């Protein structure tokens, strides 16, 4: 039982990281109607910025993270301002190609600025752990869980209760009508891109201590965030978050009980089978296109 | 043709028809293109080109084959596949395993190495193509992650990180090829693929693809079975990618897990976007731009060219610019230039 509880607590941590990344993807999907493939790569880039400020400049970790968040905001805003805003005439799949092009640009810029050697980023709280009913979790893990939940709680409050949230939801449901109604959709999109980049950066900073900071840092997070969106459905904001936590639990269970090497791959295959039976996700419903 | 003659441009069309020689026959053009490309080994043995260019041009031809398949998929049905590199790698490893470890003849191994990825591709397509296009991208991303892990971990089959080797192919059991003749084999394969693609997009299937591209709903109303044709496009893309993987492993002779990553899939996508969607020559032009220019030109630039990843930035920026400002691809530069030229000439004549 204590093993299971331990796995569950750790899943909350990984699930939270996936949920942050998935939220970034879904916010872009809902407001811009495109899949943001570069979410993970931009998160990776901004994690490099954090690592750079921490190791090379020598700033304390919290300051480095703030620098990373600023750079994330800037990079998200620049992408929207320079590219997406000027690509109104491009088809939907064309815009997805643009985000794929962004992946290539960030993959190229990162080693150019920060070198090719793998770097490392420490945990916020290096040592210590608490135990619940025999299951131990490190202080840092606790912190990640709490930060993740707090950010998501804040975002859902923002989406549901504030004027900005209303603007985002209106843009998500129909951009054209939203503009007619006086919603400043341009600022909403700009905000969405910056927010997505911030969420990606946070996910990167949380995952970085478990591995080393390389170009592939976010690959697995990215894929998991995508399948969390598929699992939860693309139609709601909370569906992917729910999906992310389910993926986190399933992944750790598969890795612990089935195979440490193939656990994650089995999960991907299970998701593909899941699509066959429930193509619109757990919460999503079929969208009908009108001609 | 008859219907073309009616209308305003009648005189011009007639004139063109009259001038139509064997040079305008597309099949002849494909073969001629092949013959010209096949001369590279001759030029290098004559000392005009460096011999390393054979490998470079050869790999461009290989990537062109894979890109041609992706062009069918993305260009016509707008579906994005991120699994190109995964399928190429699978076919490459399979062919290397079948010929080196099991000693099967090249032809048989070629057929098996194409058939298995295609079957996997059809299964994936059945799972993901019933929904909107975005699902195929995500599912193929998952599959390529699974395949990449397989290449790294399944050491009996792939030899893990140290990579797998293969020999130059032996055709019909007695004709052992070397580097130059394998290069010719690549050219032959590419020309066959070009002719096949040309026939496909100009035949009944191509009509259905065109209809799908124009409007999915209209195509369905005209009786085009959406799932069937999307599945066909994806299966073809997988088959082309597999063929390209087999050619790769028998030409380059090594395959490593690090080759078949997301970056490779993105490069192949860059090829078709930059070169030109739905264009056969555009695909080859795109492959040349994406794979030759970084190698030949960018490395010559001092400081910047020495840094890893500069070629990625080059392709990435080019993709975004082409999509935003020149969505038909760089191959359209030539007809537009010719048009400009003709206009000027026409003006000059009317003035004179």
From TrEMBL, chain A:
<dbReference type="GO" id="GO:0006865">
    <property type="term" value="P:amino acid transport"/>
</dbReference>
<feature type="transmembrane region" description="Helical">
    <location>
        <begin position="12"/>
        <end position="29"/>
    </location>
</feature>
<feature type="transmembrane region" description="Helical">
    <location>
        <begin position="61"/>
        <end position="84"/>
    </location>
</feature>
<feature type="transmembrane region" description="Helical">
    <location>
        <begin position="136"/>
        <end position="159"/>
    </location>
</feature>
<keyword id="KW-0029">Amino-acid transport</keyword>
<keyword id="KW-0472">Membrane</keyword>
<feature type="transmembrane region" description="Helical">
    <location>
        <begin position="265"/>
        <end position="283"/>
    </location>
</feature>
<dbReference type="InterPro" id="IPR052157">
    <property type="entry name" value="BCAA_transport_permease"/>
</dbReference>
<dbReference type="InterPro" id="IPR001851">
    <property type="entry name" value="ABC_transp_permease"/>
</dbReference>
<dbReference type="GO" id="GO:0005886">
    <property type="term" value="C:plasma membrane"/>
</dbReference>
<comment type="similarity">
    <text>Belongs to the binding-protein-dependent transport system permease family. LivHM subfamily.</text>
</comment>
<keyword id="KW-0813">Transport</keyword>
<keyword id="KW-1133">Transmembrane helix</keyword>
<dbReference type="Pfam" id="PF02653">
    <property type="entry name" value="BPD_transp_2"/>
</dbReference>
<keyword id="KW-1003">Cell membrane</keyword>
<keyword id="KW-0812">Transmembrane</keyword>
<protein>
    <submittedName>
        <fullName>Branched-chain amino acid transport system permease protein</fullName>
    </submittedName>
</protein>
<feature type="transmembrane region" description="Helical">
    <location>
        <begin position="96"/>
        <end position="116"/>
    </location>
</feature>
<feature type="transmembrane region" description="Helical">
    <location>
        <begin position="188"/>
        <end position="207"/>
    </location>
</feature>
<dbReference type="GO" id="GO:0022857">
    <property type="term" value="F:transmembrane transporter activity"/>
</dbReference>
Automatic annotation (TrEMBL), chain B:
<feature type="transmembrane region" description="Helical">
    <location>
        <begin position="182"/>
        <end position="201"/>
    </location>
</feature>
<dbReference type="Pfam" id="PF02653">
    <property type="entry name" value="BPD_transp_2"/>
</dbReference>
<keyword id="KW-0472">Membrane</keyword>
<feature type="transmembrane region" description="Helical">
    <location>
        <begin position="264"/>
        <end position="297"/>
    </location>
</feature>
<feature type="transmembrane region" description="Helical">
    <location>
        <begin position="27"/>
        <end position="46"/>
    </location>
</feature>
<feature type="transmembrane region" description="Helical">
    <location>
        <begin position="309"/>
        <end position="327"/>
    </location>
</feature>
<dbReference type="InterPro" id="IPR043428">
    <property type="entry name" value="LivM-like"/>
</dbReference>
<feature type="transmembrane region" description="Helical">
    <location>
        <begin position="231"/>
        <end position="252"/>
    </location>
</feature>
<feature type="transmembrane region" description="Helical">
    <location>
        <begin position="53"/>
        <end position="73"/>
    </location>
</feature>
<feature type="transmembrane region" description="Helical">
    <location>
        <begin position="110"/>
        <end position="129"/>
    </location>
</feature>
<keyword id="KW-1003">Cell membrane</keyword>
<keyword id="KW-1133">Transmembrane helix</keyword>
<keyword id="KW-0812">Transmembrane</keyword>
<dbReference type="GO" id="GO:0005886">
    <property type="term" value="C:plasma membrane"/>
</dbReference>
<protein>
    <submittedName>
        <fullName>Branched-chain amino acid transport system permease protein</fullName>
    </submittedName>
</protein>
<dbReference type="GO" id="GO:0015658">
    <property type="term" value="F:branched-chain amino acid transmembrane transporter activity"/>
</dbReference>
<dbReference type="InterPro" id="IPR001851">
    <property type="entry name" value="ABC_transp_permease"/>
</dbReference>
<feature type="transmembrane region" description="Helical">
    <location>
        <begin position="79"/>
        <end position="98"/>
    </location>
</feature>
């Amino acid at each position: 039982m204590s093993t299971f509880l331990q796995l569950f607590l750790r899943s909350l941590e990984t699930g939270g990281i996936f949920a942050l990344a998935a939220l970034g993807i879904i916010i872009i999907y809902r407001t811009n109607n495109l899949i943001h493939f570069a979410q993970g790569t931009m998160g990776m880039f901004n994690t490099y910025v954090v690592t750079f400020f921490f190791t090379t400049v020598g700033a304390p970790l919290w300051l480095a993270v703030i620098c990373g968040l600023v750079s994330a905001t800037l990079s998200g805003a620049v992408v929207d301002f320079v590219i997406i805003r000027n690509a109104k005439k491009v088809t939907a799949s064309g815009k997805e190609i643009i985000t794929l092009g962004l992946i290539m640009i960030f993959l190229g810029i990162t080693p150019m600025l920060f070198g090719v050697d793998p770097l490392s980023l420490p945990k916020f709280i290096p040592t210590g752990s608490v135990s619940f009913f025999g299951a131990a979790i490190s202080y840092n893990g606790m912190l990640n869980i709490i930060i993740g939940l707090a950010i998501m709680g804040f975002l859902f409050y923002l989406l549901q209760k504030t004027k900005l949230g209303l603007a985002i939801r209106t843009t998500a449901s129909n951009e054209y009508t939203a503009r007619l109604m006086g919603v400043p959709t341009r600022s909403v999109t700009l905000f969405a891109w910056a927010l997505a980049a911030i969420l990606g950066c946070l996910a990167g900073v949380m995952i970085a201590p478990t591995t080393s900071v390389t170009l592939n840092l976010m690959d697995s997070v990215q894929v998991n965030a995508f399948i969390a969106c598929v699992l939860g459905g693309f139609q709601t904001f909370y569906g992917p978050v729910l999906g992310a936590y389910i993926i986190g639990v399933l992944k750790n269970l598969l890795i612990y009980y089935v195979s440490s090497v193939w656990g994650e791959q089995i999960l991907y295959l299970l998701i593909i089978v899941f699509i066959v039976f429930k193509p619109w996700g757990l919460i999503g419903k079929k969208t009908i296109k009108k001609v | 043709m008859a219907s073309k003659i009616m209308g305003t441009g009648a005189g011009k069309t007639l004139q063109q028809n009259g001038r139509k020689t064997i040079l305008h026959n597309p099949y002849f053009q494909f073969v001629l293109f092949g013959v010209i490309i096949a001369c590279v080994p001759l030029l290098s043995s004559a000392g005009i080109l460096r011999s390393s260019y054979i490998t470079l041009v050869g790999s461009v031809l290989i990537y062109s084959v894979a890109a041609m398949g992706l062009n069918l998929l993305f260009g016509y049905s707008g579906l994005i596949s991120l699994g190109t590199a995964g399928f190429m790698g699978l076919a490459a490893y399979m062919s290397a395993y079948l010929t080196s470890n099991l000693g099967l003849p090249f032809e048989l191994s070629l057929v098996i190495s194409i058939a298995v990825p295609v079957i996997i591709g059809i299964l994936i397509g059945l799972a993901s193509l019933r929904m909107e296009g975005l699902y195929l991208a995500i599912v193929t991303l998952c599959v390529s992650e699974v395949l990449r892990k397989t290449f790294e971990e399944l050491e009996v089959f792939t030899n893990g990180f140290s990579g797998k080797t293969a020999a130059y192919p032996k055709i019909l059991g007695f004709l052992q090829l070397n580097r130059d003749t394998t290069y010719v084999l690549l050219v032959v394969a590419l020309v066959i693929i070009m002719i096949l693609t040309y026939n496909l997009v100009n035949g009944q299937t191509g009509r259905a693809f065109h209809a799908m591209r124009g409007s999915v709903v209209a195509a369905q109303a005209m009786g085009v079975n959406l799932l069937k044709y999307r599945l066909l496009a994806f299966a073809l893309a997988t088959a082309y990618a597999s063929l390209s993987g087999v050619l790769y492993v028998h030409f380059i002779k090594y395959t490593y897990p690090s080759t078949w990553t997301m970056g490779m899939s993105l490069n192949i996508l860059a090829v078709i976007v930059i070169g030109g969607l739905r264009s056969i020559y555009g695909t080859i032009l795109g492959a040349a731009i994406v794979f030759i220019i970084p190698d030949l030109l960018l490395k010559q630039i001092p400081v910047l060219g020495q840094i890893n990843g500069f070629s990625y930035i080059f392709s990435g920026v080019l993709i975004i610019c082409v999509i935003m400002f020149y969505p038909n691809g760089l191959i359209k530069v030539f007809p537009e230039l010719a048009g400009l030229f003709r206009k000027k000439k026409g003006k000059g004549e009317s003035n004179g």
